[in-house]
Amino acid sequence: MSADRAAIRAAAPILLGAALMLSLAMGLRQSLGLFVQPAIKDISIMVADFTMAIAIQNIAWGLLQPVAGALAARYGFRVVLVAGAALYAVGMLTLATTHHLLGVILGAGVFIGAALACCGSGMAMAVASRPVPAAVRSTVLGMVSALGSLGALFTAPLGQWLAEGWGWRVGVFGFAAVALIMLPFAWMAGRVDKIVTPARPLTGKGSESARAVLGLALRHRAFMIMAGAYFVCGLQLTFLTTHLPSYLALCGQEPMLAAKALGTIGAFNVLGSLFFGWAGGRWSKPALLGGIYVVRSLVLAWYFNAAPTPDSTIVFAALMGFLWLGVAPLVSGAVVEMFGLHWQAMVQGLAFSSHQVGSALGAFGGGYLFDLFGNYQLAMQIGISMGLAAGIVQMLSGLPFWGGGKRVVAEPA
To answer: Which of 67, 112, 179, 276 would staple 326 via disulfide (CB 3.0–4.6 Å)?
Structure first.
């Protein structure tokens, strides 16, 4: 145990850089929903138009995540992380200065999506996995995810304050400045490149190419079940970050309540990430993931089946926050166990592509159904039903008859 603590202390600058980079990246992304209502009025677009940009963001993030992981495996993490932080600022500046839907799509969609593929949760988890021993990896991933979840505590109130005082464009300019702060943290996290993790043979035929490893992942039953459940995870969470502010406004709640709710989600992300990071080192990761999806769906059903109040909204945000980023250390740890460290960022990116397709559907589909019916009732019924089904299948995936115990590599290293 003393050797593990020494390894963590030695890795502290890398872990801190990854956590702070992740905190700002996810905080900014989770707070974009604050600008939906003022932006659509200013630019004269519909809710579905703005949410289409968020959908494109999620698709770009998901599709480019395996590419970013493969580039990091070949050229190193630092260049990818720093490029992502810079592109994040470019995306915010594009959104802040646009007067047309195209600018919204490019800024909030394409640029920020590509930036998140380079410096978001997948890359941060891959960085944090490398410099620590396998025995404490799940706990460390939970700690990094916990610290990385604090960004919304800062970004959501900042964005709301700037928007209320000087307009939504000033709020987005403020977010661009925050994105620039990510640059030194991305550079710090890039020190992980000094740690060499040679590719391990996964099939007994020598070192595989990226294409061979991706093909292997696509044939791995437990991995594919996890990726499918991850689709529903993305659908539920992005629906909330995109549409919760609008939902509360429609219900007559004050605008700051949405910012408080997003901040509360960020705060309770800390507890959830720490708990599930710790739990992932002791119990079945598929079972824990499935449990998160089932309980999260039940919480959604409770909240959206009654008119929201300030108190119920904060309680809801606390529960959802606890069940939010806890999936990150579990998915990351499961991928390492299945495929090893060298290809983690790429294979995890493949799973995350599924998550982001779900995110795109949650963002755009929620807006489309709202424009069609004038409320979010059908969207929530679909999301809750899918979450319950995905959670049950994910829990079953750890059982032997699903092949859940089968690993491609003997040990996570």
So the answer is: 276
109 sits in which H/E element: none
CATH code of the domain covering residue 96: 1.20.1250.20
What crossing angle do the helices spanning 344-360 and 210-218 adopt, rounded to 10°? 50
Summarize the confidence of residues 253-282 as an average pLDDT: 77
Let me know if residue 4 belongs to a domain. no
What is the number of helices (H) and of strands (E) in the chain? 20, 0
Q: Any idea what DSSP says for residue 397?
A: T
C-beta separation of 283 from 318 below 8 A? no
Average pLDDT, integer, range 171-178: 91
From 235, 245, 263, 247, select the one nearest 363 (Cα to Cα). 235
Q: Tell me the CA end-to-end span of the chain in Å, nearest whole number.
A: 18
Residue 345: Cβ-neighbour burial (10 angstroms; 0-12, 13-18, 19+): buried
Q: Is the pLDDT higher at 253 or at 208?
A: 253
pTM metric for this prediction: 0.71
Residue that is written with structure tokens 């032997």 in the block: 400
Please state, for a pLDDT cut of 90, what percent of the chain lies above it: 9
